[in-house]
Amino acid sequence: MEDVLVLNRVTCGVCNTTLTSMHRHDYQSCTCDNQTFTDGGTDYQHCGGKDMEAVNIDSVYLSDGFDKCRTVPIWGSYGKNGDEPLKWMSISEMTDEHLEALLHYNVEEWRKDLMKQEIEHRKKQKHAG
Ligand SMILES: [Zn+2]
Fold this sequence. Notes:
Number of domains: 2
Bound molecules: zinc ion
Helix content: 10-25%
Number of strands: 9
Strand content: 15-25%
Structural class: alpha+beta
Radius of gyration: 16 Å
Number of helices: 3
Order of helices and strands: EEEEEEEHEEHH
């Protein structure tokens, strides 16, 4: 099975800036001479820099496991009433109600799977107490 890119992230080894591309046309670059960049969001990772040795790929894939995937930002939210500035959240930061509600939306399957896993994970935690 093909792996899924969950978070598109690189760190520039020259200026130590971490760059995250959140969606397909979200081109992010640092300002130092290496011109490290990443683009493509979770569709694909297009990254580079003058010296590729200084481009450290910190991306997260589904194969990194649920414990890792639940802690990285994968969902953009404009707040409860949709009037707040865009904020990227990890599923571990989302409320139960938010997760449940999103399962009824047209959300990519892998995101939905992670949300379902998070709901199950919380149920287990409650019972474990
Ligand atoms: Zn840099």
